[in-house]
Amino acid sequence: MTADVIRTHFARQQETKRARKDPTYLQALLAGQAPTAAAYVTALDMGREGDAAIDAARQIDQAAANFTPGTPPAA
């Protein structure tokens, strides 16, 4: 596993669990259009809910892809 200075492995697992408990994220995940769990949790922390959180998370993923080489675009 590569070193991740921002988030520990445990924190990433907690983000994934938190995102998958949300019905909107789970629905997007099953449809194959879910953003990353970290972006979704960030959107929730920003006060977004439901579809607004999905849209905000996609924007976060797209912004990250623009600045990170080799990152696939948001769904």
- Distance from N terminus to C terminus (CA atoms, Å) equals 25 Å
Task: Estimate the helix proportion, in percent.
Answer: 55-70%
Look at the structure and give the mean pLDDT: 84
Tally of distinct domains: 1
Topology pattern, helix = H, strand = E:
HHHH
The helix tally amounts to 4
Low-confidence spans: none
Q: Evaluate the radius of gyration.
A: 12 Å
Shape: globular
Give the number of DSSP strands: 0
Main beta-sheet strand count, sense and barrel state: none
Provide a concise account of the structure shown.
With 75 residues, the chain is mainly alpha-helical.
Keywords:
75 residues; mainly alpha; 4 helices
Provide a descriptive summary of the structure in words:
By secondary structure, this protein is mostly helical. It has one domain (9-67). The chain is built from 4 helices and no strands. α3 packs across α4. The N and C termini lie far apart (25 Å). The relative contact order is 0.14. The mean pLDDT is 84.
